[in-house]
Amino acid sequence: GMDEAPAPASPAGLSAYVAVSQLLGLTLLVTTGAWLGRYRGGVAWHSSLQFNVHPLCMVLGMVFLQGDALLVYRVFRHEAKRSTKALHALLHGLALVIALVGIVAVFESHRAKGIPDMYSLHSWCGMATFVLYLLQWLLGCGFFLFPGASFSLRSQYKPHHIFFGISLFILSIAACLLGITEMLLFKISDSYSHFVPEGILANTLGVLLVAFGLVVGYVLTRDDWKRPPLAEELALSMDFKTLTEGESPGDGSQ
């Protein structure tokens, strides 16, 4: 167990990249807050400022928390798989709830101001991303979190889950970039071309979003940083391979 041997350390490069990702993530939130607070009047729910809840929630939920949910298998490399998996699902679930608040904010704000919904490319990409993200979360819980799913089904679904996980993270950032552009063209179309401070700040937010995505993407795709299976997981998967029906003999916690 954990008592007699110290846990192996994470690769040095991994720790540095994860630290940079967290610094970028916090800078994202501060920059979003600065833009909304300094140039867009701040954030409030029951007022004309309700719209501003939207960008704040989307950056917090669909970018920062989603990115961190993807990183938990790299960060918690030597913890039990079951608890790491639960944290992964929990962070994604939290991101979903916060994103839902952000979506409600924009629909209510549009209704209050008589603005039509769902006509822009940003809204199409954003809504598609959210719906697919919810679906991915439900499927992930169904296949990996509840003990009912068979081992063979899990191993068949896993590559799809990983591909769509990274794809949805990329799509989320893309939707943010479209949203930033749309907001600048709505609010400061006359002065944007003169390199006004608001335009520069919002552009900087876009660059930070891309940087966060690149750093998280690098950590996720580097093979030698992937989570090593624990001894008991290796033993279990050997048992699985010898079983012709491919079903889990245990409680399905792998």
UniProtKB/TrEMBL annotation:
Q: What does this protein do?
A: Transmembrane reductase that uses ascorbate as an electron donor in the cytoplasm and transfers electrons across membranes to reduce monodehydro-L-ascorbate radical in the lumen of secretory vesicles. It is therefore involved the regeneration and homeostasis within secretory vesicles of ascorbate which in turn provides reducing equivalents needed to support the activity of intravesicular enzymes.
Q: What is its main location?
A: membrane
Keyword Oxidoreductase attributed = no
GO molecular function list = metal ion binding; oxidoreductase activity
Chain ranges passing through the membrane: 12-36, 56-76, 88-107, 127-149, 161-180, 200-220
Keyword check for Nucleotide-binding: no
What subcellular locations does the record give? Answer: Cytoplasmic vesicle, Secretory vesicle, Chromaffin granule membrane
Chemical reaction(s) catalysed: monodehydro-L-ascorbate radical(out) + L-ascorbate(in) = monodehydro-L-ascorbate radical(in) + L-ascorbate(out)
Q: Which cofactor does it need?
A: heme b
Record InterPro entries: CYB561/CYBRD1-like, Cyt_b561/ferric_Rdtase_TM
Q: Specify the protein's topology with respect to the membrane.
A: Multi-pass membrane protein
Instruction: Please name the gene that encodes this protein.
Output: Cyb561
Q: Name one GO cellular component term.
A: chromaffin granule membrane
UniProt entry keywords in alphabetical sequence: Cytoplasmic vesicle, Electron transport, Heme, Iron, Membrane, Metal-binding, Translocase, Transmembrane, Transmembrane helix, Transport
One of this protein's Pfam families, by short name? Cytochrom_B561
Name of the molecule in the record: Transmembrane ascorbate-dependent reductase CYB561
Annotated Cytochrome b561 domain ranges read 20-221
